[in-house]
Design brief:
InterPro entries: DNA-bd_HTH_TetR-type_CS, Homeodomain-like_sf, HTH-type_Tx_Regulator, HTH_TetR, Tet_transcr_reg_TetR-rel_C_sf. Keywords: DNA-binding. It comes from Paenibacillus germinis. The protein has 2 domains: about 60 residues, Orthogonal Bundle (Arc Repressor Mutant, subunit A), CATH 1.10.10.60; about 130 residues, Tetracycline Repressor, domain 2 (Orthogonal Bundle), CATH 1.10.357. About 75% of the residues lie in helices and about 0% in strands. It is built from 10 helices and no strands. It is elongated.
């Protein structure tokens, strides 16, 4: 693994565990096994590192990472829709640092317009992505085309709130909530 990636990995863990304010570049450098000046070679400041980390996380959680439209067919559309969301929930559960880091991004977004814009951009990929996915379902003939925008926004709200509630440590049945939400979007929409 390259030094840049090692720095991002340790920053991910330390910012999640300690928060932005309590994590120093010295702590990160020590965990990576490099000097602080070597860390400055890659990142000019703690803020620059935090922003780079945010960009990497945003790339990993974009809509098409979890809902690759090309994989949805007439035969598997509804089941795959549910499965993709369940996979997303499971991946979040399996990463103990993810929820903590997302909480830190949300806290910092109230203080930093660039972070707020990055978070909004990810949410927008979900609205656009769900709209495109539902339109794909219409083209395949497995769904009717009414209220696609509202249904896409509802699914985005559900995904975002699942993420937020998991971040808070609330023990809801997220898998069933996701499945129920997809069923509601789907209910009465199958053209068979």
């Amino acid at each position: 693994m390259q030094t840049y990636e090692l720095i991002l990995n340790e920053a991910y863990r330390l910012f999640a565990r300690n928060g932005f304010e309590k994590t120093s570049l010295s702590m990160i450098a020590k965990e990576v096994g490099i000097t602080k000046p070597a860390l400055y070679y890659h990142f000019s400041s703690k803020e620059a590192l935090f922003h780079a980390l945010l960009q990497e996380v945003c790339k990993e959680i974009r809509f098409d990472t979890f809902f690759p439209i090309k994989e949805f067919s007439t035969e598997n559309f509804k089941e795959h829709f549910i499965t993709c969301g369940l996979k997303m929930i499971q991946e979040q559960r399996n990463d103990p640092h993810y929820s903590l880091l997302m909480k830190e991004f949300m806290i910092q977004s109230t203080r930093d317009e660039k972070i707020l814009e990055a978070v909004k951009a990810v949410i927008d990929t979900y609205v656009q992505g769900f709209t495109a996915l539902l339109m794909h379902g219409v083209k395949l003939g497995v769904m009717r085309g009414e209220n696609l925008g509202v249904r896409a926004e509802m699914l985005t709200l559900v995904i975002d709130q699942i993420d937020n509630y998991m971040t808070l440590g609330l023990a809801f049945d997220y898998e069933r909530i996701w499945q129920y939400s997809v069923e509601q979007v789907w209910n009465g929409e199958i053209n068979t």
